[in-house]
Input
Amino acid sequence: MKKGELVYEGKAKQVYLTDNPDEVLVWFKDDATAFNGEKKGTIQSKGIMNNAISSFFFELLSSKGVSTHFIRKIDERSMLVRRLSIVPIEVVVRNISAGSLAKRLGWEEGRKLPHPVVELYYKDDALGDPLINRSHVKALGIATPEQLNTLEDTALKVNEILMEFLAAKNLLLVDFKLEFGTHRGEILLGDEISPDTCRFWDAMTNEKLDKDRFRRDMGDVEAAYQEILKRVGGELVCSR
Ligand code: TMP
Ligand code: ASP
Output
């Protein structure tokens, strides 16, 4: 597998071509941003930890029948994935009130929701990723109703799998964000699943073990990512 030209650079990852046009290499950076890039920083070894954690979660989800872009972990900071044409919708699932939901509804953080709440955001940096609904998706023409059903059904299935797995590790899955894309006509789960894109709280103490420690200047950011990696059991070094 040859690492080719850099084709895309996001806030936390780079994407490189490979010698197979169907596959790309995702390289995880240590850069961290918040508030649509307004706050910038570095989290030591974040790329290594997020690659390990994401690779682990993608393997877990694949083993439970979720179709993902993940092929295999290549090295400390990179994974090989199927090349996707991104669907510009971020799907957020929430189990406990926190972040923008707490703010929007005027709720305190930590309230258990009666059922998982699914939200859609239009993936557009210039607009600041606004909250949208089904009707907006239709008007924007960014996904068919069938594709949107797949996105929402998959997001809820991912929620069940991850919640159950994390509960056994004494972790609460407060909320998370997923991204999807199409590959040869099929919708696949893409992007990453890590403390950058999920809220994880310790089940006993409610201690935050995710990127909120960076967003809110709480300190011990690296230690929180390390704790998640330790509890999840992802491998730092590639086993293949
Ligand atoms: P929010 O409460 O700020 O809307 O975040 C909901 C979830 O989505 C949370 O787990 C963090 C994740 N998220 C991202 O992955 N990227 C983002 O840009 C934002 C705003 C949130
Ligand atoms: N990814 C976001 C950014 O745009 C921030 C966040 O995760 O809160 O910087």
About this structure: The chain is about 30% helix and 35% strand. The chain has two domains: 6-82, 86-220. The helical segments are 46-63, 99-105, 134-140, 145-167, 212-215, 221-232.
